[in-house]
Design brief:
Shape: globular
Structural class: alpha/beta
Order of helices and strands: HEHEEEHEHEHHEHEHEHEH
Strand content: 15-25%
Mean pLDDT: 96
CATH superfamily: Ureohydrolase domain
CATH architecture: 3-Layer(aba) Sandwich
Radius of gyration: 17 Å
Distance between the termini: 22 Å
Number of helices: 10
Number of strands: 10
Number of domains: 1
Length: 282
């Protein structure tokens, strides 16, 4: 089953503006990507609050799965064809390989964690970044990926929903002028989003643990006091720049429970709706 199966069957890759690809990174990555594709076919794209179809003026094509080692090359190809990649993950490490393909682009990360450790190793991270036959790297994984982004460039970054980080990560944020918002300090976030994104290209990385575990239980590292969907929607709709790339990651499929998958897809639809506001057909 494809992402938004009916649309993926109608449009060709050349005709489409958004190209969806899966990156099944991690021990449950393949199941995560499969579930996200499945649930995308059960969520209505019509927004009753806005009284419009979020897919208006946009064409979408699911182009299948890509291995992590081939992701950067594939993203560069998509960008060169003036398309927007939408990546279904998999662990958060995929964001490093995807975002490094963009130039002059600001990064908005929805995440409970800073992911700015110099190196890290534990069982959960190993499961998130597991690749058969490949040795685990303490310096390049889900807990360090954003730190590695800064190894080669100095992007403008904003982390939203942050509520878990070590002191050295916090110092790194201050040193590198990384903007951040905890769920308790989001009073003026819409104005800050407008200012941060105005006249800019924007890449969005959505780690599902940004949401409160009460509405998103299917994640590997749940943290209390997360954001809700209303807050997420308001933030997305405050973006004034051009969204050029999106990924969603860190879903942990639960037996007989698809709450997190439905939230993930509805969140992606909200982003697609924002993209459609500024996109001509194709």
């Amino acid at each position: 089953m494809k992402f938004t199966d009916d649309l993926s069957r109608i449009f060709t890759e050349e005709e489409s503006k958004i190209l969806v690809l899966g990156v099944p990174l991690g021990k449950h990555g393949r199941e995560s990507v499969k579930r996200l594709r499945k649930i995308s076919n059960y969520v209505e794209p019509f927004d009753i609050e806005k009284q419009k179809n979020l897919f208006y003026n946009i064409r979408i094509k699911d182009i299948g799965d890509v291995k992590l080692k081939n992701l950067s090359k594939k993203i560069k190809q998509i960008i060169s064809n003036k398309k927007i990649p939408l990546i279904l993950g998999g662990g958060h490490l995929l964001s490093l390989y995807s975002f490094q393909s963009f130039q002059n682009t600001k990064l908005i990360v929805f995440d409970a964690h800073a992911d700015l450790k110099q190196e890290f190793d534990d069982e959960k991270i190993r499961n998130l970044d597991y690749i058969k036959g490949k040795k685990f790297n303490k310096k390049i994984n889900d807990a360090t990926w954003l730190r590695r982004v800064f190894d080669n460039k100095t992007p403008e970054v904003m982390i939203i929903g942050l509520r878990s980080c070590e002191e050295n990560e916090f110092e790194f944020m201050k040193k590198n002028k990384i903007k951040y918002f905890t769920p308790n300090k989001m009073k003026n976030i819409k104005k800050e989003i407008e200012k941060f994104t105005k006249n800019s290209k924007i890449y969005i990385s959505l780690d599902l643990d940004v949401f409160d575990p009460g509405i998103a239980p299917g994640v590997d590292q749940a943290e209390p006091n997360g954001i809700n969907f209303k807050q997420f929607s308001e933030i997305i709709n405050s973006i004034k720049g051009k969204i050029v790339g999106v990924d969603v990651n860190c879903l942990k499929p639960l037996k007989d429970n698809e709450i997190t998958e439905f939230l993930a897809i509805r969140s992606l639809f909200e982003i697609i709706g924002k993209i459609s506001e500024h996109a001509g057909v194709a």
